[in-house]
Specification:
With 191 residues, the protein is of the alpha+beta class. The protein is built from 6 helices and 7 strands, in the order αβαββαββαββαα. The two termini are 20 Å apart.
Length: 191
């Protein structure tokens, strides 16, 4: 079982993200996991997007949303290397601050992610979007997990938003609906 994660105060990270955005234009948010199928915020536009230098991985411990401290589950993080296909959401400038505040309450309760503004390639051109990344040095990063460990987590881990398995299946289904084939995720679900 993973060690408890030291909490980071998410408030300064929110203020930093707000400062970097600046509020002078619309806000773009990159979704690669549950944000694709459950954004929980109003947006004016949604586009297919690719981020280079990062990839989606089911390698982040979840002790609240998809697991518990006693039986941690997994959620997606964006790890360095490769590329990631997902969606970008455009939030009108007037609503950007409130959307970020609400998003922080959902994604950054424990301050686990490292929010970054990343260049996203879309069919309509490049946008700079906020993405929730994960450092390999984070205590929430699982490192390499054996297939048996994924099987155990899929069978047992569940948190306030449901099971790890349901989360992975919902993400996979939406990716396929959007024409995005994630071979690594498909392999894990086939276990």
């Amino acid at each position: 079982m993973p060690a408890p994660v030291p909490l980071r105060d998410p408030a300064p990270m929110l203020e930093h993200a707000l400062d970097e955005w600046g509020g002078h234009g619309d806000l773009w948010i990159f979704g690669y996991g549950s944000l694709i199928w459950r954004p929980d915020f109003a947006f004016a536009e949604r586009r297919a997007a690719t981020v280079h230098g990062w990839h989606r991985a089911l390698k982040m411990w979840s002790r609240v949303n998809r697991g518990t401290p006693e039986c941690p589950g997994l959620v997606f993080g964006m790890l360095p290397g490769g590329s990631c296909r997902g969606m970008v959401f455009r939030v009108p400038q007037a609503h950007g601050r409130q959307v970020l505040v609400n998003l922080w309450q959902r994604e950054m309760v424990l301050g686990v992610y490292d929010p970054r503004w990343l260049p996203c390639k879309t069919p309509e051109g490049r946008v700079q979007a906020l993405a929730f990344t994960l450092s390999r040095s984070s205590p929430s990063h699982t490192g390499v997990l054996a297939d048996d460990e994924y099987r155990r987590i899929f069978a047992q881990a569940s948190g306030i938003y449901g099971s790890t398995r349901d989360y992975a299946e919902a993400t996979h289904a939406e990716l396929l609906r959007l024409g995005i084939h994630d071979r690594a995720l498909a392999r894990l679900l086939a276990l």
